[in-house]
Amino acid sequence: MIGADAPAARALADVAAAMRGAHHDWWIIGSAAVMLLGGDTRMADIDLLIDPRDSQGVLARLNVAPLPSDSNERFRSGTFARWTASTMPVEIMADLHVRNDGEWQRVTLTTRRSVSVAGETLYVPERAEMVALLHRFGRSKDLQRARLLTIEP
To answer: Domain ranges in the chain?
Structure first.
């Protein structure tokens, strides 16, 4: 798990604080979610999935501008930004889509589990939904992370 004084814990606490003003559900996904769900993995950044209706307010609170869309053939977001003012970079996505079988599919999460880090509350998908999302992402690193979550602790 994440030690309370680790850079990752401080960055996650910063994310939770920044999201206090959100009006809609949000989640930590990717490697940070895997770690928060008990998977032993490395974390280079934090992936934050927010509701598009909160995008403008969140980016304004963090003083970041949306980045132009790139030509990623696997992922696209209606809003994408990178916040680097904390101890670890945070990639902020709203209206996230993943391309599977030549078709863009919107990432919609239905479960939400609270996790406490450094006295702050964060939200991740339940373990089964996170595993399914990682399989949808389909990259080798995602499939490895999915395997970490299917191993009983």
So the answer is: 7-150
The yes or no reply on domain 7-150 and CATH 3.30.460.40 is: yes
Dihedral sign (CA 70, 72, 75, 81):
negative
Q: Residue 149's CB: how many other CB atoms inside 10 A?
A: 19
d(CA 127, CA 136): 14
Rounded to 5 degrees, what angle do the CA atoms 54, 84, 26 make?
A: 30
pLDDT tens series, the chain, 153 aa: 565 558 899 999 999 999 998 999 999 999 999 999 999 888 889 999 999 999 999 999 999 999 986 667 889 999 999 999 999 999 999 999 999 888 999 999 999 999 999 899 999 999 999 999 999 999 999 999 999 999 755
Q: Return d(Cα 45, Cα 91) in angstroms, integer.
A: 7
**146 near 138, Cβ under 8 Å?**
no
